[in-house]
Backbone:
């Protein structure tokens, strides 16, 4: 008999132990995340959160976590994770946990619920499709290997943001994401609060590119590894083939690294990027700048999550990135699912 109850601080270690047994993916392609030492740290990025723990004989066997976000009109709910210990699967525990989130959503007058699914995670996809969630959108995940230093010499001034540049930068971000699902225009105050609340981000890690004194491109450079480390427990065949080919070419020239099965990846992410289309080179130079920070500190991989139609993908091509995919699933509760044809990816949601 499963009992579902609120999270208690003393659950921390057992949940982290369960997480280590929970790769997301299938037999050929899967990754595992480690959010230690504090399972709740990723939730502290949000204004509110709930974790419900499933227990059997007084031992935790799984959990679900969510946050409620305030939209323009109505709130909506994000399911951040659902994990069930391998010894207790296929007994309907995950279904019960998702139902808990749905009950909370009804109670709070939530418009819709959404979650992200890592592409190879067929089990979770089956589960939520069974519960009526619809695949609404693909999200591109890009990983870049900082395998060489890039030259920055095209005349843009690349620098960390100055307090007096925040206003102009926010105008650029607000116009870049205008009309995208889940984007709510920032004010100077809200942007400052939002970036500073995210561990490893903060305004001190926000970079701008100026042209003739004006901000034409910008991006945050978030050290997401302070909240999560990723290990590929099963590497896709394509990566193995690429690693072999790159290994041969490496005798002649420098080539990107590919994550190796079992390797712990400490990801940094380019977030809240925006640029004027005629200054895509400025965006490229910001990425060069981030690349060089990684290269100099011996950190191997950085990346981004983005709408697949975002023109930043064209800019990133030169870095020979690896492409992965997430699916956004959503279900209406007391309102409608928004138009996801363009989406702003809330970086906090990418801690999977
Ligand atoms: C995905 C996960 C949470 C499912 O937990 P669970 O308690 O076994 O799920 P349930 O017993 O409630 O399954 C309900 C339905 O989901 C689908 N499902 C669950 N596991 C499945 C699997 N391995 N393969 C195919 N379908 C699966 C089935 O339709 C199942 O119904 P059925 O058993 O009647 O066929 C669990 O496998 C897990 O923890 N995986 C690793 C972590 C993860 O990927 N979490 C999700 C992203 S954060």
Residues:
């Amino acid at each position: 008999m499963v009992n579902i109850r609120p999270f208690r601080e003393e659950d921390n270690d057992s949940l982290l132990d369960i997480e280590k047994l929970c790769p997301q993916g299938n037999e050929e392609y899967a990754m595992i995340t480690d959010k230690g030492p504090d399972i709740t740290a990723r939730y502290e990025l949000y204004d509110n959160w709930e974790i419900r723990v499933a227990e059997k004989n007084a031992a935790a066997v799984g959990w679900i976590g969510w946050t409620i976000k305030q939209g323009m009109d109505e709130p909506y709910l994000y399911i951040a994770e659902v994990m069930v210990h391998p010894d207790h699967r296929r007994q309907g525990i995950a279904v019960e946990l998702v139902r808990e989130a749905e009950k909370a959503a009804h109670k709070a007058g939530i418009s819709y619920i959404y979650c992200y699914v890592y592409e190879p995670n067929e089990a979770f996809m089956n589960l939520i499709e069974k519960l009526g969630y619809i695949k609404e959108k693909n999200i591109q995940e890009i990983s870049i290997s900082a395998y060489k230093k890039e030259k920055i010499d095209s005349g843009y001034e690349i620098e960390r943001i100055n307090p007096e540049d925040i206003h102009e930068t926010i105008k650029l971000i607000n116009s870049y994401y205008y009309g995208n699902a889940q984007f709510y225009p920032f004010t100077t105050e809200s942007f400052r609060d939002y970036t500073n609340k995210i561990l490893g981000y903060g305004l001190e890690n926000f970079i701008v590119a100026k042209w003739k004194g004006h901000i034409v491109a910008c991006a945050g450079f978030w050290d997401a590894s302070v909240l999560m480390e990723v290990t590929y427990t099963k590497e896709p065949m394509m990566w193995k083939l690429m690693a072999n080919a790159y290994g041969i070419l490496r005798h002649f020239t420098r080539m990107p690294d590919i994550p190796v099965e079992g390797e712990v990846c400490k990801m940094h992410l380019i977030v809240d990027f925006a640029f004027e289309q005629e200054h895509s080179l400025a965006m490229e130079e910001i990425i060069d700048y981030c690349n060089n920070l990684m290269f100099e500190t011996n950190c191997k991989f950085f990346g981004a999550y983005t709408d697949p139609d975002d023109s930043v993908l064209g800019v990133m091509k030169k870095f020979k990135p690896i492409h992965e995919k997430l699916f956004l699933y959503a279900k209406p509760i007391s309102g409608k699912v928004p138009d996801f044809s363009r989406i702003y990816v809330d970086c906090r949601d990418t801690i999977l």
Observations:
- The CA atoms of residues 41 and 227 lie 7 Å apart.
- The chain has a mean pLDDT of 96.
- The chain has two domains: 3-132, 143-325.
